[in-house]
Design a protein that fits this description.
Helicase_HTH, Arc Repressor Mutant, subunit A, two-stranded antiparallel ribbon, P-loop_NTPase, 11 helices, 3-stranded antiparallel beta sheet, Helicase Helix-turn-helix domain-containing protein, PIF1_helicase
Length: 270
């Protein structure tokens, strides 16, 4: 994250939160599929453009929020606050508690639910009262008519007699991490799709397993991307920061760049 402080020689000078000044050059991307189509832009994402709808599902380390007159719908405050990772990175440019509203239908439903005492003692008493009735008396009669006290004593005696023959040694079972299992299958020559079918997992889960194994000599980044794509992604992280939401990074890269490629590069340069 940073602030634009100057313009020079066709470049934008950005001062980042760590105090570093860096010129941001214009990047040019050309479509491999349609050579006549090209994009020329500065790889910057304006902070004011990051509306709630644009970053749905993403989280950020820092954010400035207007929780005042800008609120116009139920639940907006919750959605906005859930975007921030920590209150340490939250700056409120405005705040009005009277603008924070709950949906009246939801509130009415909540208030219509009777208060329930869920303490363990209360739950046990309720269950006993509602379901045990005559069953308790029947249970006592069955026990009295079928159980011989001498038989119970014999069972207890046998338990103590043979208890010493039972091994109490703990057996430690080492379970292989799931991402390591995926790595073994990948190194065996299976594709991501084949591994997903064999393990009964989603393709994205298998991709995340491979990213978790990075760096590893068996999965070089050249297997998943060209040097050009790798350079694009590295440049994007250098400009935008390594902790920026992945969607923001992808929006500033050519369309053919995948989330798997972005995740791999981020893991490598961290």
């Amino acid at each position: 994250q940073g602030i634009v402080v100057d313009f020079t020689n066709g470049n934008i000078i950005v001062k980042f939160s760590n105090g570093l000044l860096r010129p941001v050059e214009r990047h040019h991307w050309q479509s491999d599929e349609y050579p006549v189509v090209a994009i020329s832009q500065y790889p910057l994402c304006l902070a004011w453009a990051l509306t709630i709808h644009k970053i749905q599902g993403a989280t950020m380390p820092r954010a400035e929020m207007d929780l005042g007159n800008s609120i116009f719908e139920y639940g907006q405050t919750y959605v906005a606050l859930s975007r921030i990772q920590s209150l340490d990175g939250l700056y409120l440019s405005a705040f009005r508690s009277d603008r924070i509203r709950a949906n009246p239908k939801v509130r009415a439903f909540y208030e219509s639910i009777p208060a329930i005492d869920m303490t363990p003692k209360s739950v046990i008493e309720n269950v006993a009262t509602s379901s045990c009735g005559n069953e308790a008396e029947v249970g006592e009669a069955v026990i009295d008519s079928t159980c011989d006290d001498s038989s119970i004593k014999k069972i207890n005696f046998d338990t103590y007699k043979y208890a010493g023959d039972i091994s109490t040694k703990k057996i430690t079972v080492v379970k292989k991490p799931t991402h390591a299992v995926t790595l073994d299958l990948f190194l065996a020559g299976k594709t991501i799709d084949e591994i997903a079918v064999e393990r009964g997992l989603k393709k994205q889960t298998i991709e995340d397993h491979l990213v978790e194994n990075v760096p590893h000599e068996g999965i070089p980044y050249q297997t998943f991307m060209t040097e050009v794509i790798y350079g694009y992604i590295v440049d994007a992280f250098q400009v935008l920061g390594k902790d920026i939401p992945l969607k923001v990074v992808k929006d500033n890269l050519p369309r053919e760049v995948s989330y798997l490629q972005i995740k791999m590069v981020r893991k490598m340069i961290r």
